[in-house]
Design brief:
four-stranded antiparallel β-sheet, 12 helices, globular, alpha/beta, seven-stranded mixed β-sheet
Length: about 425
């Protein structure tokens, strides 16, 4: 029989801690955590900004530096496979976004690849219909995408229009050349409907370019299945490639021969060592290359992607949703109003409160939870205090606390602890 004098909030909290232990014990992905360097004193929930270090990377980089570079030197371009790394690593990324072989190359940064993809898409659209002089972009996009879209519009003579993704089907029309959209909103964690929006763009005769920075490695994308034309994404978030890791570029197979990159570098030449004065593009995904690849970062990424061997992205998605569901439950339970039966997530009476701005529906949620602080100016000190107590997330103005959940190494115990500490912090900052 339960103790009638027990604190209901304490009982609930104990139950959540026990549930976390039980769910970790039953987690089919739990063993993957051992492949990462993680501080046991810290809950790391910032993998949507920078993924944790896979343990195998340190040894690989030491070998690249001491043997491949130090002893083999220039011979490593051939003997160590340096020259073909962009395509080889691209082949490792491809299945994680649902792409068949030969369509993904890893090189440069996300920003550079956005420029290649958007300008390339506009040029193809114009070949089919010269009247297309409009470029649409997600109004809530990560700032770089907006900056690059503006530059691409100036380079191609297009008019740029920013709008909410849900408004694209009604806005795209006969003058639209291309549409640049984010699969997951970096602030709120909202997941946009890639299949439906791509279909709407195609119905109007335009091309769809997707930024997958916050979805690659966190959930199934299906670029081939849904007819995506171009896609770009970083590899240092859910793919754990390390700070400054090179990004990827996907060019749909049927468009590759028509892809006219605005950055025709010698690495994408059909015969790069001919040193010819005129540019002749290579075939296939190689067209996405520009200059000499960053071998050290590429090697780190290649090794990091080895963690994915035998891992199904569908299982990753299932755990992601389970983790984020559990986090929201725990935040509500550990909030100051929990003992009074309050339902507001993290409410702290008349002082500081937090509420989720991430969609509750699974179909509309990425692999992060964003909590809005009220008042907004308290978000930064809240996140600073969380860090001081061993819970690492980040914040975005105005007032958003972001928590990223990387299923390869995030545990349910991590989730319960983070929510418990958050409740302590918000409750103590009234």
């Amino acid at each position: 029989m339960s103790d009638p004098t027990a604190d209901p909030a304490a009982v609930l909290a104990d139950g959540l801690a026990e549930e976390a232990l039980s769910r970790d014990a039953a987690d089919p992905l739990a063993q993957l955590r051992e492949h990462f360097v993680l501080d046991p004193a810290t809950v790391y929930l910032d993998g949507n900004s920078l993924g944790a270090l896979p343990k195998a990377v340190e040894g690989r980089l030491a070998d690249v530096v001491s043997r491949e570079w130090g002893r083999l030197q220039i011979r490593s371009w051939e003997e160590s496979g340096w020259w073909t790394m962009p395509e080889r690593v691209g082949a490792l990324v491809a299945p994680l976004i649902g792409a068949a072989p030969g369509q993904v190359v890893v090189s440069d940064s996300t920003s550079v690849n956005v420029l290649k993809a958007v300008v390339g898409a506009v040029r193809i659209a114009r070949q089919d219909d010269p009247v297309r002089d409009e470029l649409l972009v997600d109004a809530a996009t990560f700032p770089t995408d907006g900056y690059i879209a503006g530059s691409a519009a100036r380079l191609t003579g297009c008019t740029l229009r920013a709008l909410a993704p849900e408004d694209v089907p009604a806005a795209v029309g006969p003058r639209t050349a291309a549409v640049l959209l984010n699969h997951v909103d970096y602030r709120t964690g909202a997941l946009h409907d890639l299949p439906a929006l791509t279909a709407a763009v195609h119905a109007a005769g335009a091309l769809a370019v997707w930024d997958l920075c916050h979805s690659a490695g966190a959930l199934p994308v299906g670029v081939d299945a849904h007819g995506v034309d171009f896609a770009v994404g970083c590899t240092y978030k859910f793919l754990n490639g390390g700070p400054g890791a090179p990004a990827f570029l996907y060019v749909r197979d049927g468009l590759q021969e028509r892809f006219d990159s605005p950055l025709p570098g010698w690495n994408s030449h059909a015969d790069p060592f001919a040193m010819a004065p005129d540019y002749e593009p290579a075939n296939g995904a190689v067209r996405g290359r520009v200059g000499t690849p960053d071998i050290l970062s590429m090697a780190a990424l290649e090794t990091a992607l080895g963690v994915w061997e035998g891992v199904r992205i569908e299982d990753v998605r299932a755990k992601s949703l389970a983790l984020t569901d559990f986090f929201l439950r725990c935040v509500a339970a550990h909030g100051p109003d929990a003992s009074a039966g309050g339902s507001a997530v993290g409410s702290a009476g008349g002082g500081l409160s937090v509420r989720s701005v991430t969609p509750a529906e699974h179909a509309r949620r990425g692999s992060q939870i964003s909590l809005l602080c009220d008042p907004a100016e308290r978000a930064e000190p809240v996140m600073r205090e969380l860090g001081a107590r061993g819970v690492v997330g980040d914040f975005r103005r105005p007032g958003v606390l972001r928590f990223g959940f990387t299923p390869l190494y995030t545990s349910f115990q991590d989730v319960e602890r983070a929510a418990r500490v958050l409740g302590q912090v918000t409750g103590g900052m009234r």
